[in-house]
Amino acid sequence: MKVVSLHVYPLKSARAIDLGVAEVTGWGLAGDRRYMVCDPEGALVTQREVQALAQVTARVENGVLTLTKQGEATPIHATFDPERRLDVRVWDDPLSASLSSPEVDAELSRWLGRDVRLVHADALSHRACNPAWAGEGVETGFADGYPILVATTGSLKALAEEAERLGGGAFGMDRFRPNIVIEDDRPFADDYWQAIEISGIRYDLVKPCTRCIMTTQDQMTGERGGPDPMPAMRRIRMSGDRRVAGVLFGWNAVPRAEGRVSVGDTVTVVAEPPDGWPLRTR
Does the predicted TM-score (pTM) go above 0.85? Predict the structure, then answer.
């Protein structure tokens, strides 16, 4: 097995940035989901509510976040003041984030058609992952819950084949927004991995990832109504463990060291659970 692609999402819910090499930190891949759009009270805003976020690309250089959007001629350049902060929420998790300027917020609000603020998870931000799954002392930024999301090509192929059997159209891995994609022909082999090693770094696969309506959205436009993975996932990927309810694709992972990962790196399974993750049968 090997790493076939790497992806980060500097602005949560915006477009992916594809990488050949990524630095691995305790929070996940460097630069992943460090920025977020929220409402004026600090609640997370995603593609679920604002589909136009799928049209935004975010890049960071020399401490400046640059946003571009399909249909907008002028980019937004944002810096963040660690002295100006807002208490924000990612789902039920609170954390403190630094703010950009009111001018940046106003322009981004115009782009997205609603009142929003742009925030940064910086060195003063702390958000603990659920220790029941990740262990003690694991933190992340604005990721949904854990530092890294792993998926496999074999799983995508099996899901796509089921979707086709049900009369659906083709969709790509981008619908699932992974960080590390592993080339493996076996469908859902990651259900039987407890830990993998890549370039000397151990990644514990701590919790399967439940999927939502964002998998039905085109990741370049945000539009819905095209190929829909949900019927196939409901057919073959419904969790059989009530602790993680819903449909599953990919695994949340925690790196146990820092270092580097590259496309083409060998992936080795170093620990396996006694049983695979249970699925509901039909």
Answer: yes
Mean pLDDT of all residues in 53-77: 97
Q: How far apart are CA 273 and CA 252, in angstroms?
A: 15
> 202 and 256 in contact (C-beta within 8 Å)?
yes
Place of tokens 């949900």: 230
What are 88-132's pLDDT values in tens digits?
999 999 999 999 999 999 999 999 999 999 999 999 999 999 999
- Has residue 206 got a pLDDT over 70? yes
Residue type, 19: L
How far apart CA 97 and CA 74 sit, in angstroms, is 26
Give the distance from CA 65 to its chain's centroid. 19
C-alpha span between 226 and 279 (Å, rounded): 27
Round to whole Å and give the CA distance between 242 and 208: 12
Task: Report pLDDT for 282.
Answer: 66
Q: Residue holding tokens 């994609």?
A: 181
Instruction: Provide the pLDDT for residue 89.
Output: 97
